[in-house]
Amino acid sequence: MSYSESRTVLPSLMTSHDSNSVAFLTAGEDEHRCARLKDQLQLLGDHLTDVDLWIERFVQRVTAAEYDSGSSDAERFLEWLRQYRRLSVSENDAVCCQSARFAVATMVKLNPTRHLRFQELRTMSQEFKRDLNRLPKLWFVVNPIHVWTTLRSSAMLHDAEVLPAQVIFYPVQDEVCHAVVTSLGQQLLRHLSETGACRGDDLLAVCRDESPLDLLNVCRELMSLGLVSLG
Questions:
Q1: Domains within the chain, CATH numbers bracketed
Q2: pTM here?
Q3: How high is the mean pLDDT in each 10-residue block of the chain (231 residues)?
């Protein structure tokens, strides 16, 4: 990781620029970078009261990468913050949530076709009836864009019953959502992630200790959340 104090920028530039002009330009760039980071990291503000101070320190000490996008600069800030600031459990959870949201956004940017295809499937999938005879013949597809993280406090999960909790972050249309699903739901999602898509009879075989009704209810819940669709 490279560092650069604002004052060290001046000597290498003075040969071709007036020092006052360069200082003005550098200050303006730093101010713009700070504002962009603060806007992107608003989620942290509710849990790290001094986040603005740490953003300013980051901008002063860490050089922006050439052609750096806003999101990648913010992701670098989160890594830097973990390294240099002692975080409480709840503060670390807030950083994990923000990091997961950035990861989802990056995955959507890198895989737009897969993202759009699943969103189309989700929109077209109609609510299916509680018909256990149809379950083995249904094809289920998992949302290909998702990130798991572990949260250890209730600061970000007001309705969490068990901690630490496995939380999944994923996109629904243009929004990044998160959910805590049951252990059976986690099992289904991980199996679907490995296979991409599978029939209901395959899920019944994988979850042979679960009743078909419980499996169907979990599938309906995952569909309503936007994590699973009918293929």
A1: 6-86 (no CATH), 112-230 (3.90.930)
A2: 0.82
A3: 34 42 58 93 89 95 72 90 94 96 94 95 70 75 96 84 91 95 94 91 90 89 93 80
